[in-house]
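Attaching the record inline, Q. Sequence:
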Amino acid sequence: MSKEKRTIIKEEIVGQFMEDRSRAPWYTLVWWRFCWKCEALEYWWRKKRQTWRTGFPHEQAWNFQSWNAEMVVPRLKYLRNNLNGCPTEMFEKDYDHNADSELSEQERELAMDRAMRSWEKTLDKMIWSFKHWDDSIRPIKPKDYDPRYKKTTYSDGSVGYEGLDDSKWDWTPCEEHSKKVQEGLDLFAKYYLNLWD
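Structure, as predicted:
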């Protein structure tokens, strides 16, 4: 059986990707909505069965980072707002922890205050990372970017789209956001054993 060679039927320039999609009639939209509601009910029941069998809905494992962030953020916020101490790593390097050291009571209190503020900033970075890890950060478009596409229709019914503008986008905002998120996650891993009060 030989494959037919596909040929180009029509080429045209369109304003945006898939702009020529036709709108579905109202009765189709009503049917889709009914189907979505049925799927949502079935999905709810499936999560209940999974919880009975394994102790948790399996979506919490498939989307662990999202579920974990939801659990971590309120607990980190509570810990940050109700601190009674901090890890010893938060103190300055030359701080003497011995009770019989030569530091006065006032110097000890100042050192403790600086250490607590440092711990609060560290917790704030962790909280920020878990809250914003999935923010949608967009790259910066070139100034004279052309958003049009070349639409090609083929003989087998398929359609291809190719962007007309091949200028480079600036991905710096995405990279900076990613670094900031990673900093908080690294701090979370580093101080994981100190997350108690």
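Residues 128 and 184 are 7 Å apart (CA to CA). The mean pLDDT is 87.

More tomorrow.
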